[in-house]
Design goal:
- The chain is mainly alpha-helical.
- The protein contains ten helices and no strands.
- Its main location: membrane.
- It is found in: Membrane.
- It is a multi-pass membrane protein.
- This is TPC2 protein.
Length: about 240
């Protein structure tokens, strides 16, 4: 039963790769039949669990309620989407976001729920570090706007360079990941090599200090909550 449940959960999540929009889309009938099959298996597994569980215990368990609601929402969305397709009306499969609920809430997913709860308990405690990082990013973006915005610089594509504050924030945020390094620095460096000092300071503060601090806080708090939660606390 556990292996079958995991298989159909994996199949249900994998449908997003073949449903529109997708690189290799399958016909709507094929994906809808597979989804209905998965939902029927989930409903059967839930019914089987209800048969071997006390009535009061079953209905007091929020995991079972979440699974039933997710099945109902998925079937409703699938029916509405199918009807709209018959009338050539474009719509969105909004119920895809509820599919991870099946992965988390089945009885077989105890360790996944434990990890999920540890992540949820960790989030409030890393908020302060995240706010400090965002404050640093916003301040550096403001400095970049003042330094480069009035120089009439352009990127290699001929676009304005650091003249819009929100675009500056986004470019520097990407620079934290080093994904656009050193391309984002080159227009300023070509104008004056001294401007490289700004980017060096930015990378040291945000990439090497804040990202390391952020990772350490996340790891320590996650490990603490993982130790605090007993094995049966997530059931």
């Amino acid at each position: 039963m556990r292996t079958a449940t995991y298989f159909f959960i994996f199949l249900n999540l994998s449908l997003a790769l073949f449903e529109e929009p997708a690189v290799y889309p399958l016909p709507f009938l094929a994906t809808s039949v597979l989804e209905v099959l998965c939902l029927l298996v989930f409903l059967g597994r839930l019914t089987h669990f209800a048969k071997v569980t006390l009535h009061n215990v079953f209905w007091k368990d929020t995991k079972n309620i979440c699974i039933m609601v997710a099945i109902l929402l998925s079937l409703t969305d699938l029916a509405i989407y199918g009807v709209l397709r018959l009338y050539d009306v474009r719509s969105i499969r909004w119920s895809r976001i509820v599919r991870p609920i099946f992965l988390i809430n089945f009885a077989e997913s105890r360790q996944i729920r434990r990890a999920f709860r540890s992540i949820r308990n960790t989030l409030p405690e890393i908020t302060y570090v995240f706010l400090l990082f965002m404050f640093s990013l916003l301040m550096f973006s403001l400095m970049a706007l003042k330094l480069f915005g009035e120089r009439n610089l352009q990127t290699a594509e001929g676009l304005p360079y650091f003249r819009n504050y929100l675009e500056t924030v986004f470019d520097l945020y990407v620079l934290v990941t080093t994904a656009n390094s050193p391309d984002v620095m080159m227009p300023a460096f070509d104008f004056s090599s001294w401007y490289v000092l700004f980017f060096i300071a930015f990378i040291i503060v945000n990439t090497y200090i804040f990202m390391s601090l952020f990772l350490a806080v996340v790891y320590n708090n996650y490990k603490k909550h993982l130790k605090v939660l007993p094995g049966g606390a997530c059931d």
